């Protein structure tokens, strides 16, 4: 596969095509540079474009630059690989596997890369931590229209954590760690993330009881009586499906996660869910992880 001068990655790429592109360290770094500096080399300190000269290379082979302001930075500055001694080929393959629907475990990644499980776990933890940063802009968006919200427990025993999910149909979802199911917590999160006059679908929990008095059109479903839909679009099936798919991945692939890193795994799923309308997930992940938006 040959990439044109202006093409960053092919729109649809298999793992075999990716391995051909990064078969040498030099070609992998060139692809990284083309994505990182697709709009020109930018000094992270003064913000000037194309005001730099090549300085030297760091220990991993990435180019370093010196800006006219005196600041020295490299290709990895401001990216997930900054100050990380991670093989660039391992990074590309791990990101490819992470971008797929179900994700991958550190044991399986270690086998595919021929590295120790601990090293593979370090790479995946780094990438999932970046997922946590990349979903932050979604928490600044106000949802409107038809919104569903529900709570769910992830984990078992001391590793369990309760979350509140808020989802705008056809758009994006957010997941918020919570400590209780009080009105102050659940209703407060709705007020922070959902515009008034929206249609809000919930169960019959008392914490949601006064939403109508707060400017929302509120519909409830009594799950204890096996009421899951009232017709005319009144249901919580989208949010329930969101929980179900997340738990299948969490328990079916990863077989449980410690509470310390649980939200990283949740963030991975939330990011992929919110990018589900992107036709090609891997190129989208490449741009987000190598050339992250300024809002993150």
Mind explaining what this structure looks like?
With 296 residues, the protein is α/β, with parallel strands linked by helices. The protein has a domain at 139-257: Nucleotidyltransferase, domain 5, CATH 3.30.420. 37% of the residues lie in helices and 16% in strands. The protein has a five-stranded mixed beta sheet with strand order 6-5-4-7-8, with helices on both faces. Strands 1-2-3 form a three-stranded antiparallel beta sheet, with no helix packed on it. Strand 2 (63-67) and strand 3 (72-74) form a beta hairpin. Helix 3 (88-99) packs across helix 9 (281-290). The chain is elongated. The two termini are 33 Å apart.
What amount of the residues lies in strands? 15-25%
Q: In what order do the strands lie side by side in the largest sheet?
A: 6-5-4-7-8
Annotated CATH topology of the domain at 139-257: Nucleotidyltransferase, domain 5
Terminal CA distance reads: 33 Å
Order of helices and strands: HHEEEHHHEEEHEEHHH
The CATH superfamily of the domain at 139-257 turns out to be: Ribonuclease H-like superfamily/Ribonuclease H
Mean pLDDT: 90
Biggest sheet: strands, sense, closure? 5 strands, mixed
Break the fold down into its secondary structure elements and pairings.
Blueprint lengths: L14 H7 L3 H12 L15 E6 L5 E5 L4 E3 L13 H12 L6 H8 L3 H18 L11 E9 L6 E8 L4 E6 L4 H11 L5 E5 L13 E5 L15 H16 L6 H16 L6 H10 L6
Parallel strand pairs: 4-7, 7-8
Antiparallel strand pairs: 1-2, 2-3, 4-5, 5-6
Helix pairs in contact: 3-5, 3-9, 4-5, 5-8
